[in-house]
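re: that chain from earlier
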Amino acid sequence: MNMESDMIPRLEEVLLAFSRHNPAVAYCQGMNRLVAVALLFLNEEDAFWCLVAIVEYLLPGYFTINMIEAQTDQRIFRDLFATKLPELFSHLSQQLDPTLYSFNWFLTVFVDNMHPDIFLPIWDAFLVEGKKVLFRFSLAMFKYFEDVLMEITDQNLANKLLRNLGDRVTDLRKLQAIAFETLNPFPMKLVKARRAVHLPEIMAEMQQLEKLRASVSQSHSNSNNQEEDDL
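^ sequence. v structure.
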């Protein structure tokens, strides 16, 4: 979106309204893109409620400080990737982490680097069916380019391609067929089962990180106090 556009004040108005509506979230990475898409079709009030629906109901826990649900879903996505596309997953994992790219697809519902003719139908499905659509289309993106990706052995080349993967999608019907036909079956009970494993893992890791931060902070404080006593 052009920063000189008259849409910018409208976008800022919606984001400000949301920050007052939900101060616990306020503003988080990716929300501006969600609002920008909503404003293409809706007035400011309806765009605000669209943002509320996405942040609080369709993707709860994605836009918090620790983004715990977003992190959890990326671990689930890795599991699904390894199950659905094992050869490609093994090949890519030797070079890079696929979730470095899928994380942003989830967070912005594919708005970044994808033509509106491609991402708007994905939005339609997402608003009706929820975030399981994000798993389907993220896997479909990798499957769409599987032959090309399997031939790449250079990490830099793989990174360059994956960073701009959305720009290269030109056949919406092919992408949809992969998402809703090739990748079937796609039971949500599997997603829920993996979530039950990964969410506690991430929560435990965050608790451990907080303990480490507290320990470092206390050590730093004790060191300062000792220096003052020595003066």
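The chain has a mean pLDDT of 91.
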